[in-house]
Amino acid sequence: MERLLGLLKVKVVRGLNLAICDPLSHSSDPYVVIRLGQQKVKSSIKYKTINPEWNEELTLSITNWTLPVKIEVFDHDTFTKDDTMGDAEFSILDFVEIAVKDLTHVRDDTVMKTFQPNEENCYSADSHIMWKDGKVTQNMALKLRNTDTGELIMHLEWVNLPPGMSR
After folding, report:
1. How confident is the model at residue 3 (pLDDT cuts 50, 70, 90)?
2. Contact present, 29 and 22 (Cβ < 8 Å)
3. Over the Cα atoms of the chain, what is R_g?
4. Which residues form the C2 domain (predicted)?
5. Which residues lie across from 155 on neighbouring strands?
6. Most Cβ neighbours (<10 Å): which of 20, 114, 115, 132?
7. Are the beta carbons of 46 and 53 closer than 8 angstroms?
């Protein structure tokens, strides 16, 4: 059995300029699916929009920090298979390495690491792992792949295990 390292809260903030899958209404009915290993969590559906506001927090249990977090955006359809609207993925390796350290001596609002967009990642803007208000956090804008348009804005936050739970 793998040991639980902590919890990753993934806040799906919003989507920007997502693909139009319903041409008659010139919109889509998007939702987000997040996978990490065998875990799968899903946002609610936002109807008739290509700029959805979710502000939903989904939680993943972290036992293997080497696996990427995979994201898919779908257009909900009532009578047919849901359409894919793009995907993205990101590594949590650096995030978890920082999160499991003792950071009590670190000054608030300290940038622990910065990621810049490049061909090897899905970032569409600089993203910083921060120590803020006693928590390790990261804001990210991800450019969706396998589609012509669309970004997801997300926020990560690490939750340590309660005292007594083994790492």
Report:
1. confident
2. yes
3. 17
4. 1-105
5. 11, 139
6. 115
7. yes
The alpha carbon of residue 16 and the mean position of all alpha carbons in its chain are separated, in whole angstroms, by 14
Strands 83-90 and 39-42: unpaired
Q: Is the torsion defined by CA of 16, 17, 19, 24 positive or negative?
A: positive
CATH number at residue 91: 2.60.40.150
CA–CA separation, 122 and 139 (whole Å): 13
- Identify residue 10 by its one-letter amino acid code: V
20-44 per-position pLDDT tens digit: 999 888 999 999 999 999 999 999 9
Which residues contact residue 76 at a Cβ distance below 8 angstroms, ignoring those fewer than 6 apart?
A: 29, 30, 31, 45, 47, 82
Query: How far apart are the C-alpha atoms of 126 and 144, rounded to whole Å?
Result: 16
User: What kind and span of H or E run contains 80?
Assistant: none
State the amino acid at position 85 in one-letter form: M
pTM of the model: 0.93
| Residue type at position 11 | K
Asked if residue 1 belongs to a domain, the reply is no
Dig out the tokens for 93 from the structure: 């390796």
- Number of structural domains (the chain) is 1
121 in any annotated domain: yes
| Phi, then psi, of 114 in degrees rounded to 5 | -125, 140
